[in-house]
């Protein structure tokens, strides 16, 4: 496994328009189902319950990073789901939600961005509809079927790997990706990958160097598009991620390891 050599990292100097794109769930924040210790901060409430947390260390380090560079969350969450989160940073200048199909600028949806996203996924509509129809009649489905903002298809199923395998055989995989996260199933246009979204935002704000962090298959394109990428060892090994990757050993919560690394080399 290759990673950036220490000597090149030593030359890394903070840039005024450096951007840190980060996935949220299981990268920076963790659900109540994950054991991240007792030293944690509640950052998401839903129906009166605490459902997501950050470690105290991540909560503190994230503020340091946000002072040094532009911090941009990139998530498959909907606008409503994203707005439930309080990272302790106030309203961020930019956030990419719905896998980058929607851009929040100072907390408000950028309508032009969304219209451009709809245009970019137009060629995938037939395959998305096909996947929707297949899932609609799949008896393994245990959740409502959603066509999120006309951008991608989402639901939940039992035996998700079986469902994914079936879908992959019946849809055009040159047009859409079929992904799952535990029992959650997603069918996403390739033009709506996170990697494409961060390139769009980089052009939009004329950013320079890109840092990115993620933990799952959803994040691969974003990590590959970055100048410096942070990923857990398990993900890096599984997908043979090499160039420009800094692999985290995951001996502690992933968020702590990533942010400690960034803060150390920003000093």
* Order of strands in the sheet with most strands: 5-1-13-14-15
Question: What form results from the Cα inertia axes?
Answer: globular
Tell me the major beta sheet: 5 strands, parallel
Helix-strand pattern: HEEEEHEHEEEHHEEHEEHEHEHEH
Offer a concise description of the structure.
The chain has 267 residues and is an alpha/beta fold.
If you had to describe this structure to a student in words, what would you say it looks like?
The model is unreliable at 1-15 (pLDDT under 50). With 267 residues, this protein is α/β, with parallel strands linked by helices. It has 10 helices and 15 strands. The strands form 4 sheets. Strands 5-1-13-14-15 form a 5-stranded parallel β-sheet. The protein has a 4-stranded antiparallel β-sheet with strand order 9-10-12-11, covered by helices on one side. Helix 2 (56-68) runs parallel beside helix 10. 34% of the residues lie in helices and 25% in strands.
Defining key terms:
267 residues; 5-stranded parallel sheet; alpha/beta; globular; 10 helices; 4-stranded antiparallel sheet; 15 strands
Provide the fold topology.
Elements: H1 6-9, E1 19-22, E2 30-31, E3 40-46, E4 49-55, H2 56-68, E5 70-73, H3 79-83, E6 94-97, E7 102-105, E8 108-109, H4 111-120, H5 125-136, E9 146-148, E10 152-156, H6 160-170, E11 176-181, E12 184-189, H7 194-205, E13 210-213, H8 220-225, E14 228-232, H9 233-238, E15 245-248, H10 254-266
Helix pairs in contact: 2-10
